[in-house]
Design a protein that fits this description.
By secondary structure, the chain is α/β, with parallel strands linked by helices. It contains 14 helices and twelve strands.
């Protein structure tokens, strides 16, 4: 009798133990889900960070898990990986959205896949080669860098540019799409009769840091305008350089056709001293109106522009909405381009008053050198809005 009692007790303990383990590792019900988001810090690119915060406010901490990658991410790859792994360690996290997809993202995804093959990975604005990141992430959102190749010089030309200055540094020029875009810039500038100037700036992830890179821009733009004249257009490949570039270009009477990550929120509010009230956070039309007024005060009307939709903010928001749709079984597998386009359209309709006037295209990336199409690497291109 005693032995039977022991066996029964052990059996009950095993059942309770298995049930507890099941609660910890298997949360597959329709209501048991979370989505992880990793963005840069405010100093690297405030847009993505604010977009993630807005998503958190909408869904709450029981649905959204936030992480940031360090400013010196090139030197702190282990931290990048650890932060992604921290999100993936929660069994309820079914998808992770990373914007921007800095170098090291592929390695972080590989590490997670060792234990969590089920997680949907969405990467926005990837800083790694398409052929690599497209094999690691399930979906990649990217601004159409190659489409920008002819479009940005053409916009600058319309604004009166005679010279086009391209600020970058070796790390960015090691990115396949950014390097290819620079060559397209050069070619289109030559066709349009504009001089192309290849200018090297400090890498914000180097010892100079973000502040050093920003100070260089503030000092170099006046030198360039003194050398080439006011009809000089400026472009930089780095997010942290946009505020000083806008500020200096406006002060010097130069031209600024587009930020690296085109958006009314990218660089403009900080550079122009625009304070956005809490009730106007994310209000694109309000920000556009404020930018237009500030640019006009400095005599820059018609010489500053961007895209009407904040791409990286859209990638965060639409990425989360798509991830939610996937988790709830509303997509055809991990890659459903039609649903992705719907999420992009919904974002524009919810954030831009004149949404019907915006021309935005979404296509898969085709590597013309190898004739290889990467179906999950989606390129987004928009027209311009002039201030």
């Amino acid at each position: 009798m005693f032995k039977k009692g022991v066996v029964l007790l052990l059996s009950l303990l095993m059942i309770v133990s298995l049930a507890a383990c099941g609660d910890k590792t298997a949360s597959n019900g329709p209501d048991n889900w979370k989505i992880g988001i990793m963005t840069g810090t405010v100093s690297q690119n405030e847009e993505e960070y604010r977009a993630a915060q807005e998503v958190l406010e909408n869904y709450g901490e029981d649905r959204i898990v936030l992480q940031t990658y360090p400013d010196q991410f090139m030197k702190e790859q282990e931290t990048v990986m650890a932060n992604v792994m921290t999100m993936a360690a929660d069994p309820d996290v079914k998808a992770i959205v990373i914007v921007q997809g800095i170098p090291g993202t592929s390695a972080a995804i590989d590490k997670v896949r060792e234990t969590r093959e089920d997680i949907l990975f969405i990467v926005g604005t990837a800083g790694e080669d398409p052929q690599m990141i497209s094999k690691k992430a399930d979906v990649v959102f990217q601004m159409d860098e190659l489409g920008m190749g002819p479009a940005i010089p053409e916009q600058a030309k319309k604004q009166g540019a005679e010279v086009f200055v391209h600020y970058s540094f070796p790390r960015h020029m090691s990115y396949a799409l950014l390097a290819a875009r620079k060559e397209l810039f050069k070619a289109r500038c030559e066709e349009l009769g504009m001089e192309f100037v290849d200018a090297t700036a400090p890498d914000p992830t180097s010892d100079a840091g973000v502040s050093g890179a920003q100070q260089f821009i503030l000092e170099d733009v006046p030198r360039k305008v003194a050398e080439y004249g006011k009809n000089t257009a400026f472009f930089s490949t780095n997010c942290s350089m946009q505020e000083p570039l806008i500020k200096a270009a406006l002060e010097e009477g130069a031209i600024y056709p587009q930020p690296c990550c085109p958006s009314p929120f990218h660089g403009f509010p900080g550079a122009l001293g625009i304070e956005i009230p809490n009730d106007k956070k994310g209000d694109i039309d309000y920000v556009v109106s404020e930018i237009t007024d500030k640019v006009a005060e400095k005599g820059g009307t018609g010489r500053f522009s961007t895209w009407p939709v904040p791409m990286n903010m859209m990638f965060v928001d639409a990425g989360v909405e798509y991830a939610k749709a996937y988790i709830q079984g509303e997509t055809d597998g991990k890659l459903d381009v039609d649903v992705i386009k719907d999420k992009f359209t919904s974002y524009v309709e919810n954030h831009v008053e004149s949404a019907e006037d915006i021309n935005m295209t979404v296509v898969s990336y085709l590597d013309e050198n190898t004739d290889t199409e990467y179906e999950n690497y989606l390129l987004v291109l928009s027209d311009f809005i002039d201030f």
